[in-house]
Amino acid sequence: MRIILWNIWCQAVVACYGMAVARPRLPVPACLVGAFVVIALMDVPETNSGLLSAAAGPTETALPSATMPHGPMQNLHLALPELPSSTHMEQAEALAAKLVAGFGVKLPLAIEFSDWILEASARQRMEPELIASLVFAESSFRKYAQSHVGAVGPAQVRPHYWGAFCGDADLNDPEENIYCGTQLLGYLLERCDGDQRCALSAYNIGMNSKRFAAGLRYIDKIDRHMQTLKTVSL
User: Fold this and answer.
1) What distance in Å separates the CA atoms of residue 130 and residue 98, rounded to the nearest whole number?
2) Secondary structure letter of residue 84 according to DSSP
């Protein structure tokens, strides 16, 4: 509407200017008065709502619509993050039940060892059944077992040979002994390019030993123990 009035005003001014040039002595043409009327109309609000709102005085500024400018609001249903299937304690209790049923270990001792085995398993990314089978084969879960060659603890680690490998670990502490034994097995796995049978044989008879038959018997024993833990009925 204002654009139309603006065009009319411009045409009226041009017409009045032409008449004033042609007859300078004439009074101000009526069209010039009409031009100023048009100007006045341009300043009038386009709707009555503007007049009403101005008369009503200042009001609170309206908040922008929820649908503008980014479209209507939508309710998003976000999925909750998946929680672990079981806690460390629950996993330890489950492994302890397998040790009791499969190896005949007393429950309090089985729970204690399961906690250590799961921690060692997480550190070296190994199956807890493998570590438990190694400990059972080496010491039958005796915390302070000692062999005639000087190996000590549940994992039967020889301090004079592997003590420095595990840093400041106290190999007479059964918990640290299991951690060290698992770390040693992980190292042997690397030496054997991931071959578990090679690593287990080296753990028992040494990396360069030629007692192959003894190594094979040890591997078979570990395999049987692992199969027992994985198939035991609880």
Assistant:
1) 13
2) P
- Give the CATH number, domain containing residue 204: 1.10.530.10
pTM, 2 dp: 0.63
* Residue 23 resides in a domain: yes
In which domain, by residue range, is 15 found?
A: 2-45
Tens digit of each residue's pLDDT (9 = 90 or more) over 2-16 = 566 556 656 665 666
Q: Which helix (H) or strand (E) holds 203?
A: helix 196-205
Residue 131 lies in a domain: yes
Cβ atoms within 10 Å of 157's Cβ, excluding its own: 26
Domain count, the chain: 2
Q: What residues contact 54, with CB distance under 8 A and at least 6 apart?
A: 45
Separation between Cα atoms, residue 123 and residue 185, nearest integer Å: 12
Cβ-based neighbours of 176, under 8 Å, separated by 6 or more:
166, 169, 170
Q: How far is CA 127 from CA 25, 60, 102, 226, in A?
A: 113, 68, 16, 10
Tell whether 51 is covered by a domain: no
Chain-centre distance of CA 17, in angstroms?
A: 79
Exposure class string for 169-198: b at 16+ Cβ within 10 A, else e? bebeebbbbbbbbbbbbbbbbeebeeebeb
- Same domain for 212 and 157? yes
| Dist CA 94 CA 204 (whole Å) | 28
pLDDT in tens, 56-86: 444 444 444 444 455 566 665 666 555 555 6
Residue 73: its H or E element: none
